[in-house]
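Please review this one:
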Amino acid sequence: MPKAAVLLLVLCACAPGEDDRTILAVGAHCGDMEISAGAVLARHARLGDRVVILHLTLGERGNPRLSPEAYGTQKRREALEAAKALGAEALFGPYKDAELPDDEPARRYVAGVIRSVKPTHVITHWKNSIHRDHAAAHAIVRDALLLASLEGVPVEGAPHRGVRGVYYAENWEDDEGFQPYLHVNVTEDFERWKGAVTKYEFIRGGVSSFPYLDYYVALARVRGARSGHRYAVAFEVDGESKKRVAGALP
């Protein structure tokens, strides 16, 4: 059975939803989920939902002027500050930047986090990326969702089938084949998002020449204009999740 069909079965097996939501955002590096989906995370935190960000690596090799050890310490501090500003919790994986392993132990590690956090919604990277860690994170999370749901899989914690939706964030490094599907109005939470992501030096412009903040502000304005809001964030979903069934045209 194709992996996409297996994931659909996992989602369909969820228990009836409660009003409470727990959002788990899984990023390859500190900063990935905050810059691409952070405004949505801030919105859910404001609405009273639990928000957890799992950073699989620190992204410690991204500063040519600092050693990985020094920059890793900085990135961890920035991630904690950004999470606090968003109203989220931060978790840190055991992996190294640019060496995120697309393997079974990594899948079981993330499956353990899923069983511990018990998310109702999961956000991670889109499948196509120019960054190997991003593509690996996507594959790891998809398979980990299945492992976390099954009885008898040797992962700590009870099986969790409470995931109602899996969403893929819009990232400039992951845009091949990305088609905006779900648009979330983040106008009320936009300034809070900007205050949170600028805890990171690389987003303020102190590390890379890429204009991260300008790019994602402009992108949110474009997605907002296309969806009738001031600012919005767009997500892609698996093809099976786009299926709608109705008795007449909605």
Residues 68-86 form the longest helix (19 residues).
